[in-house]
Each structure stands twice: as structure tokens, then as C-alpha cells.
Design goal:
Blueprint lengths: L1 H27 L4 H8 L3 H11 L1
């Protein structure tokens, strides 16, 4: 159980870091959504949600 909890925490933390990176890259405004998705591993839907949340 404990090992599964640690693995879940790492996965969730990594996802949060990718979302944060996506927000920062959107704020820079120099990359396309596809480039951000490729660089962060986020889906285009997630990128679009980040863009909407930032507006």
C-alpha cells in the first residue's frame, strides 16, 4: 500500500509540474499549443483548459 501511495504521489506531482510548465509557456506566447503539448506531455485539451483558466 505504501509503495503504491508513493508512486501515485510522484505521478500526481509530475502532472502538476507539467501543468505549471504549460501555464508558463502559454504566458510567454512564443510557442504553439502543439509545441507546448509535445514539450510537456499534456494533451491539447489540457492546454486549452489552461488557456481558458488564464483568461
Amino acid at each position: 500500500m505504501r509503495v503504491q501511495g508513493l508512486e501515485r504521489g510522484k505521478k500526481d506531482g509530475g502532472k502538476q509540474a507539467n501543468l505549471q510548465t504549460g501555464q508558463h509557456l502559454l504566458a510567454l506566447g512564443t510557442l504553439t499549443e502543439n509545441q507546448i503539448a509535445t514539450g510537456t506531455g499534456l494533451s491539447l485539451d489540457e492546454i486549452n483548459r489552461l488557456r481558458q483558466d488564464g483568461d
